[in-house]
Design brief:
Layout: E1 3-8, H1 13-24, E2 28-34, E3 42-43, E4 46-49, E5 62-65, H2 72-81, E6 85-88, H3 95-108, E7 112-114, H4 120-132, E8 139-145, H5 155-167, E9 188-190, E10 193-199, E11 205-213, E12 216-224, H6 231-241, E13 247-249
Parallel strand pairs: 1-2, 1-5, 2-4, 5-6, 6-7, 7-13, 8-10
Antiparallel strand pairs: 3-4, 8-11, 9-10, 11-12
Helix pairs in contact: 2-3, 4-5
This protein binds NADP nicotinamide-adenine-dinucleotide phosphate.
NADP nicotinamide-adenine-dinucleotide phosphate binds near residues 15, 36, 118 and 205.
Length: about 260
């Protein structure tokens, strides 16, 4: 018997790619789909529900979520409370919300994953950037996404900044006397790390970390050209969470 999977947001850009991936994997069994605006009650023989409460009596192992930032916490909480291991790509969690969900999952002994980025290349970028930051403490992040993206900065950029802040060398960074002539010109500030968000049609998900040192520069860049780039990570996540007893933040914790 395969791992029984629910997909919330199955008609969206990520949700539809995930639906195809799950249907194509004989180790996974798609048992339910969530979409509030659906006109159908079945998709390829799989029941489609309009509200999350309809899943309460469904037998399932994993709740995959690619919906909207404002639903991310509520949906993940619902999944844990109903015994589904969440695999969540939806962005928009606060640190407090993640802490709360990790504690709840540990108490219920249910695995789970919240991943700001499922692309393996993006995970490697974070690792490489954390290493580079030990030698190049002066750096800035530029994240570039399609123009439909609702939140900024991206979850990946925030996570990258967080990982870098934890690993950055203690080299003294001189306070700057710069002045923004237009508010926001220097981007968002996460513990002294500037993050710039670009939104343009045609893009999918891209990120650069630019490091500058005396007389040299280093740029690390990752590009997701297609949503297929996330599917290997989602697949790994689904298969890993059913063996875990606590939710983790970041796919790197399950690789
Ligand atoms: P999208 O195309 O807008 O898809 C979101 C889907 O959720 C839509 O089909 C939407 O339906 C549906 N939805 C709205 N309310 C819902 C509800 N109450 N219950 C269930 N479904 C609901 O967005 P996307 O590009 O797929 O991205 C979805 C999320 O994943 C975003 O937060 C995005 O930042 C994130 N993301 C994460 C990764 C990663 O690697 N972690 C990669 C890409 C994207 P309607 O359109 O009918 O409202």
């Amino acid at each position: 018997m395969g791992i029984k999977v629910i997909i919330a947001g199955y008609r969206g850009k990520m949700g539809s790619t995930t639906t195809s991936m799950v249907l194509a994997d004989p180790e996974l069994e798609l048992v339910g789909l969530l979409d509030p605006h659906t006109q159908v009650d079945q998709y390829q023989g799989i029941p489609v529900f309009k509200q999350k409460e309809d899943f309460k009596n469904l037998q399932a192992d994993v709740w995959v979520d690619f919906t909207k930032p404002e639903l991310a916490f509520e949906h993940t909480l619902f999944a844990l409370e109903n015994g589904f291991a969440p695999v969540v790509g939806t962005t928009g969690f606060s640190n407090q919300e993640i802490d709360h969900l990790v504690a709840l999952s540990a108490q219920k002994e249910i695995g789970g994953l919240i991943a700001p980025n499922f692309a393996i290349g993006a995970i490697l970028l974070m690792e490489f950037a954390a290493k580079a930051a030990q030698y190049f403490p002066n750096l800035e992040i530029i994240e570039l996404h399609h123009d439909q993206k609702k939140d900024a900065p991206s979850g990946t950029a925030l996570k990258t900044a967080q990982v870098i802040a934890e690993n950055r060398s203690n080299l003294e960074i001189k306070p700057s006397e710069e002045e923004e002539l237009i508010a926001g010109a220097r981007g968002a500030d996460y513990q002294g790390i500037h993050i710039h968000s670009v939104r343009l049609p045609g893009l999918i998900a891209h990120q650069e970390v630019l490091f500058g040192g005396p007389g040299e520069g280093l740029t690390i860049r990752h590009d997701s050209y297609d949503r297929q780039s996330f599917m290997q990570g989602v697949n790994i996540g689904i298969k890993a969470v059913v063996k875990e007893k606590q939710l983790v933040y970041g796919l790197e914790n399950l690789l």
